[in-house]
Prior knowledge:
This protein has six helices and two strands. By secondary structure, the chain is mainly α. A two-stranded antiparallel ribbon has the order 1-2. A hairpin with a 2-residue loop joins strand 1 and strand 2 (32-33). Helix 1 (2-26) packs antiparallel against helix 2 (38-62) and helix 3 (71-96) packs antiparallel against helix 5 (124-137). It is elongated. The two termini are 25 Å apart.
Amino acid sequence: QACVVAPQMAGALGSVLERTLQYANERQQFGRPIGKFQAIQHQLAVMSEHVCAARMAAQLGCHADGVAPDRLRVAVAKARCSEAALVVSELAHAVHGAIGFTEEYDLQLYTRRLHAWRQTAGSEAYWHDVAGDALLAHAGPTLDLVRTITDVPA
């Protein structure tokens, strides 16, 4: 189930970023869009980093050599997407202000669902334990284990 939830989360994170970018470019303060302010640009950049990392991790988590996905890849995907959900939701609501929590505005639908999905099929703490157990059981350099997760045939 975590193999399905991670891509779902990555997609929702992308939607939250898109909505936040649109809002930052439309909302005016002091005669210019708030997206022109350095503090907002920084928040948007951090959001982008987390969204891209979550998307990449979700893609890796879905890669399988056979029918069943690799448990370690799924662990990395679910943990990374869950971590991103917390940061991206927090920053999106910071950029939007109070309007992001209103019933009429869709942002709260995405962020509430992201928080629920963080616990679905195991929290990031659970999946960190899975990855940690794999690391402890691995004989050899840590980089070899990282390569098994990230190297996928084209």
